[in-house]
Amino acid sequence: MKALRDALAPLAALVILLALWETVARVFSFNPMVLPPPSTIGLEASRSAGSLLSGALSTGRSALVGFGLSTGVGVLAAIILSSSRVLERALYPYALFLQMVPIIAIAPVLVVWFGHGARAVAVSSFIVSVFPVIANTHTGMRSVDPALRDMFRLYGARRVATLWKLELPASLPHLFTGLRVASGLSVVGAIVGEWVAGVVEGDSGLGILVLVANRQGNTALVFAAVLAASALGLLLFGAVSLTGERMLRRWHPSASGS
Amino acid sequence: MRISGIRRTFSGGVSVLDGLDLDVAAGSFVALVGPSGCGKSTLLRMVAGLDRPDAGTLTFSPPLEHTPGARPPIAFVFQDAHLLPWRSVLDNVALPLELAGVPAPERHASAHALLQEVGLGDATSRYPAQLSGGMRMRVSLARALVTRPRLLLLDEPFAALDELTRNRLDDQLLALWKELGMTVLFVTHSLSEAAYLAERVVVLSRRPARVMLDRRLALPPERLPALRADPGFAREMGLLLQALEQGEAA
After folding, report:
1. Does the distance separating the beta carbons of B76 and A151 come in below 8 Å?
2. Which chain B residues are within 8 Å of A252, Cβ to Cβ?
3. In this complex, do B49 and A172 lie within 8 Å of one another by their Cβ atoms?
4. Which chain B residues contact residue A148 at CB under 8 A?
5. Helix runs in chain A, H state only
6. Both B200 and B229 in a single domain?
7. I want to staple A181 with a disulfide (CB 3.0 to 4.6 A). Which of A67, A132, A160, B87 is the partner?
């Protein structure tokens, strides 16, 4: 019931926005190549449902692989960065560098390294989404309660035990903040990757669909594909948030009472 | 068991402890009182081995060595409960044994027994976020005692609690001390708490800390709540307060 009530306001806003858009597009009879009315987009989406779905599956797969890589590599990098001050000072600037890489500029290099297709797309997704995982997990591991560190030391805990039983669990809330950001970014990274490294034949993703529809002047399909990509990002975001809430429900204030 | 010859420590350019001697007899309950920032906590951390003195020695007889795999002989209770929020009460209390490599059934049995003693026998599967401040502190106390330490260090453990809860925890601590017989070093800034709990109270000056008063209290060994209203208790409090004020002015 509460969920329904919470969803009411944004739903109403959406309906009003769509109605307004439809009216404006029809009354001023915009060229549908410039601004297709929502009804046209909907019609186009249902007509191209097949290619939208297979595109979403392809992009989703690449984004999922990129996101998985980001999670694994990101947590590992954070563990390495947190293991010593010297390593942190030596390596953190380069982790930051990853964040600054203009993906659209480096994507051609990815094609050289990984060839056209899903592999390069997944790597692009990974590069775009890994930094928030590193940065947040690292922050989490650095902000472990010093008294708890003292306690582990007092009880003669080994390095590995401290990592598993203190540092990693303590940084879970931070990790999930990073993963939520990374989930949306991984889809963005996959779409951009497809623009440069995607393949048109057979297994083509939403990014390719956008390119092709755009070239054909089918703006309605472009909109439909963009919507599908956003839905994909939301889906991943929702799954990550839900997992995080379940894991943290019992102990973290951010997960309870909301 | 005896701690002797704690001397001379500096930290960050500030002289916190400048040649301090203190002997503590095995099995005794000693309270350390002093103005805030006088170095009580630093002293406690050095006894625990969490901090190193720049000079001077800390000796225990018989030696308190922590051999890997064995139960650690020293336990520390911090100012706040500092529990692991992702662990149940039982697993929090069992943690020191877990880190010492004690098998699960055995450490859970030990943890259960201690939780029973602090009156939390039916809260074992709850999580720290679901407990009151007083309950969390009792879990923290149970965690410290689960290893059956020979030396228990407490750093203003109940300072954040309301007075009634604090008095109740004081009684619980005394009962556990009587039962388990470990040496207790209790840092507090509450004179009444020190007088109520300890056999012996050491009053420190502001830093660098010197011993202003080292007094074996003339109070009955059996501490009951009625003692707080006793004239003898008031007299001891007066003596402690005087020493504390002198230490502050020195």
Report:
1. yes
2. 85, 129
3. no
4. 82, 84
5. 2-27, 38-47, 49-83, 85-100, 103-114, 118-142, 146-154, 159-162, 168-170, 172-197, 206-215, 219-248
6. yes
7. A132
Q: How far is CA A230 from the centre of its chain?
A: 10
Q: How many Cβ contacts (< 8 angstroms) between chains A and B? A: 59
Question: Which of 1.10.3720.10, 3.40.50.1970, 3.40.50.300, 2.50.20.10 would CATH assign to domain A60-250?
Answer: 1.10.3720.10
A163-222 residues touching B, CB cutoff 8 A: 165-166, 169-170, 172
Say if B204 falls within a structural domain: yes
Number of domains in chain B: 2
Same domain, B186 and B245: yes
Quote ipTM for the complex.
0.88
Query: pLDDT for A71-82, tens place per residue?
Result: 999 999 999 999
Instruction: Mutate one of B99, B126, B131 to test the A interface: name it (highest A CB count within 10 A).
Output: B99
Contact B72 A256 (CB under 8 A): no
Cis before B149 (ω within 30): no
What CA–CA distance (Å, rounded) separates B217 from B238? 12
Domain presence at residue B220: yes
Residues B157 and B175 both lie in one domain: yes
Residue B32 forms part of a structural domain: yes
Report if residue B76 sits inside a domain.
Answer: no
The residue among B206, B169, B192 whose CA lies nearest residue B241 is B192
Does A161 sit within 8 Å of B78, measured CB to CB? no
Q: A24-31: which pairs have CB atoms within 8 A and are 24 or more residues apart? A: none
pLDDT per residue as tens digits for the range B191-208? 999 999 999 999 988 877
Contact (CB<8Å) A154/B82: no
Which CA distances in Å does A196 have to A129, A152, B100, B117, B141? 17, 50, 55, 67, 61
Mean pLDDT of B14-23: 77
Cβ–Cβ below 8 Å for B72 and A172: no
Q: Give the domain range for residue B139.
A: 82-149
User: What pLDDT does A257 receive?
Assistant: 38
> Quick one: B196 and B237 in the same domain?
yes
Say if residue B208 is in the same domain as residue B90. no
Rounded to two decimals, the pTM is 0.84
Q: Where are the domains of chain A?
A: 60-250
- The answer to whether the Cβ–Cβ distance between A250 and B129 falls below 8 Å is yes
Position B74: which residue type? I
Listed residue (B74, B70, B77) closest to B99, CA to CA? B70
